[in-house]
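Researcher: If convenient, please comment on what follows.
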Amino acid sequence: VFVSGLFYGGKRFYNHGGMAGKKAMLCLTLGGRTHMFGENSIHGPIEHYLSLIQRCSLAYTGFEVLPP
């Protein structure tokens, strides 16, 4: 749970966020087959979905986001 004022808010965001100096990485599995995610696939590249979590949640609160 990211608490406003502690992890973000005011001038606390991105490199000044409450988690600055810490690293985060997403690790997940999918039930789909390989043809479902990627360039020219049904759903498109998985990076499009992950970028919202990586940028708008993790990086916003100050984490250095590592590639999944």
